Fold this sequence. Notes:
152 residues, four-stranded antiparallel beta sheet, mainly beta
Amino acid sequence: xxxxxxxxxxxxxxxxxxxxxxxxxxxxxxxxxxxxxxxxxxxxxxxxxxxxxxxxxxxxxxxxxxxxxxxxxxxxxxxxxxxxxxxxxxxxxxxxxxxxxxxxxxxxxxxxxxxxxxxxxxxxxxxxxxxxxxxxxxxxxxxxxxxxxxxx
Length: 152
């Protein structure tokens, strides 16, 4: 990301969407196969999204250990749908319907994790270091697909 403005950017993020709603093997409108790491030991948040996102709400931001306060980030303030459950690190995934594949997204320096119920997508959006005018920074966001059930 290159700052072409004349002001310093603080708390800049990239909205990296991992959408799978048109992938029949991974589509998960019930949210019961989406997994986020919680509990300090690689635990799962499996199926929890379905319970905490009301039918009328379609999106949810979750804070990550070591990340910024969610309300410090403009997009979070604008959308205003957050959950207090802190996620252990910047990764989230969805398990295939047949339980043989896991697809997900991760970043080492996350701003937050994000789930969109309507579009069935997950985000592990990276947080950039402050970027002065004219500077370029590029945190890494990885998307992956691997064989497995997602069980730890």
